Amino acid sequence: MTRKVWTPHPYQLDIVNHQLALPRGATFAGMGTGKTVSTLTAIATAQEFGLGPALVLAPLRVARSTWPDEVAKWEHLSGMEVQTIVGDVNQRRRALRNANAGVFTMNYENLPWLAEELNGKWPYGLVVPDESTRLKGFRTRQGAARPRALGRVAHAIPRWANLTGTPAPNGVADLWGQTWFLDAGKRLGRSFSAFTDRWFAPDRSGFGVTPLPHAQREIEALLSDICLTVQGLPVDEPIVNQIMVDLPPKARRMYDDMEKTFFTSMSATTEIEAFNAAVKSQKLLQFASGAVYDEDGNWHEAHDVKVDALASVIEEAAGAPVLVAYNFRSDLRRLQNAYPNARTLDSDPGTIRAWNAGKIPILLAHPASAGHGLNLQDGGNILCFFSVDWNLEYHDQIIERIGPMRQKQAGHNRPVFVHYLLARDTIDELVVDRLRNKRQIQQVLMEAMRRR
User: Fold this and answer.
1) CATH T-level assignment (fold) for domain 10-230
2) What are the tens digits of pLDDT across the range 374-415?
3) Who contacts 85 (Cβ-Cβ below 8 Å, separation ≥6)?
4) What is the residue-wise DSSP string for 258-284?
5) CATH 3.40.50.10810 segments of the chain
6) Fold observed for domain 239-244+304-451
7) Count of other CB atoms within 10 angstroms of residue 208
């Protein structure tokens, strides 16, 4: 993989400078704004001046793939080694002993294990909770087990950098737990009860709280010196984000067999064959997506890594509606099974009305069904391609349904996010290259063959 030269946007330099200037702070930046590479750049710079290894906490897929991939992507990070702390107990213990790693990444679920393993002697000069809303359940007494395990050592660690695109998905009450790790309650109260007593009143149910009218304004003012909010690029262009997933070993083998021999065996009774290059192209797209069709028109699941990756997109959306584009009927069925609350874009006008009214959290749409004149911009500004296809017109049409111009015309001053779930080293990458550069399909395929 050829490393790229990083040419940062001004707001990305703001992230780097913010994290270098503050020993303990937070960066609020949405998916696709480059907060990962910006944070890694800050880490690399700080390590030149003696910062010890950094520990990144993240959802499992992000810890296992996203952070290592970013280091491998950029030229200026070529001297940095990333060690993932995942797998079984023995694998995790071996990972902890890697003396050459400058960055360790681990999923939140293993925090209690790590706390027990290190027994209070954490060697990290910096902790970076990616998706720091995972810490919102912290309480000085009781509270969620994972943040409580981290809380025991948090303020013995010299530097801390919370990262999230959605700091308060359920309201400002979510901010106390995350902020405690930055200042031990100095700004928002030493305990959660002190926080709620000051800025909240009991709600009608008697079991929850609701913020007082002045709460958000005062809380934001108190946090302004340690929190940086990043808006990203101007709204004229969508913010595009490629989310890479790795095929599991069995799916990788089947994909490679199909690519090389036009044939693969999925099981003792299921064989998949492509009779020409065009059919092979479709079979490869199906494998990359997660399910492949046999000659009788029945589909067979090959993997679910894209379903898992979509969960991260939906989680970071924090309740904001997500438009999901799919390519195959098998995609639709698998998405419906994974997300029962999703709706499918159909011919019923009520579906579009419900989406635009904010009543549909996940709308599943085939790009061919999202033709000219369809207005979806009121319902949301987040589009995720679960799978991709060669058809440039359909691709551009579905983006335009929620596109920047339609957002502006509807009076929405917000960016448009376009996420692609792509299987690494598969035809997915060729398709996106074709869509991005608007080149002929044959040209893309021929160039890819020459690179092999």
Assistant:
1) Rossmann fold (3.40.50)
2) 779 999 999 999 999 988 878 888 998 898 877 876 788 888
3) 63, 92, 95, 96, 104, 105, 106, 110, 114
4) HHHHSEEESSSS-EEE-SSHHHHHHHH
5) 10-230
6) Rossmann fold (3.40.50)
7) 11
